[in-house]
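Reviewers of the previous submission asked for a worked example of the structure-prediction workflow described in the proposal, so we include one complete record here. The input consisted solely of the amino acid sequence. No template or homolog information was supplied to the procedure at any stage.
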Amino acid sequence: MCTQITASRYDMPMAKPSRHVGIRELREQSATYVKRAQAGEEVVISVHGKPAATLGPIRTSAPTLTMTELAATLAIIAPRRRGEFTLTAPLAINTGTRIDQALREVRG
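From that input alone, the workflow returned the following structure tokens.
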């Protein structure tokens, strides 16, 4: 017999169970559901029985990550070039200029 063990993160906040509500009921009792969302409950709004949107609390304490931390978790790809980025001088292009000619002028 094999038991599968899944890892859990203790530092993540536990989400409260969400409640499903139809759009008609939401219209009739919108103040009630806004108060519930303000209290931390997530409300799933359904249209014709299918989930369409969520109503929940505003998350004010979003974690801020540096570019180095994002690159370490592979959420972004770090740039290959090192050093400061410098903008090139703007290129004046006359109307009617073909794009291949403009690119040839930019690329040299």
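The domain at 19-55 is CATH 3.40.1620 (YefM-like fold). We consider this example representative of the routine output the project will generate in years two and three.
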